[in-house]
Amino acid sequence: MIGKLSGRIDYKGSDHVLLDVRGVGYIVHVSDRTRMALPGPGGMAALYTELLVREDLLQLFGFQTLAEKEWHRLLMSVQGVGAKAAMAILGTLGPEGVARALAIGDAGAIRKAPGVGPKLASRVVMELKDKAPAVMAMGSAAPDLDDDAPLVEPVAEAPAAAAPKPAKPSARRQAQQAQADALSALTNLGYAPSEAAQAVATAAEEESETPALIRAALKLLAPK
Question: Which domains are assigned to the chain?
């Protein structure tokens, strides 16, 4: 199983890139959002990958984060949602948008993806609403590839230097971690994962820090 590829982009197509990994070219299908975020031909890139195996087809799909990869897997578990439809949903909404849409049951947001009709969008929300919190809880447990150091080919050994300072987490990862921490806190208080996820997703529209997210979510969960 190919789980990650790092190399030089030789070509960017409409829905894929050709990634040269030490002389071997891999065609990796990506969402519109990921394709736009990648550098142009000649640039270095790294992607988490998922290999789709069919009787007459082998396809690689690439993702910038492990959370995005898990959302893709989860979306594909719904009958009628293939790999490309899942990519279309992720490309339209992004991982955070998918998380919010599923948490609050917003089928209309899922419908915005090309090729996704109202029935399929409703099925996605109905089937995944209770499964979404597990992926949301991943937070920033794994590093995002866009936070990695630039990819370069090794050159002559350089003189020893002071160890570089650890890179600061991106704003996206900080937001993901805050939501994951808030979700964990609410479930530890006894709230069901699905209702906790819905409250956190709604609270995240206005709050970004963990304590504020928890307070806002608790207000939403309080009996009316």
Answer: 4-63 (2.40.50.140), 66-136 (1.10.150.20), 171-221 (1.10.8)
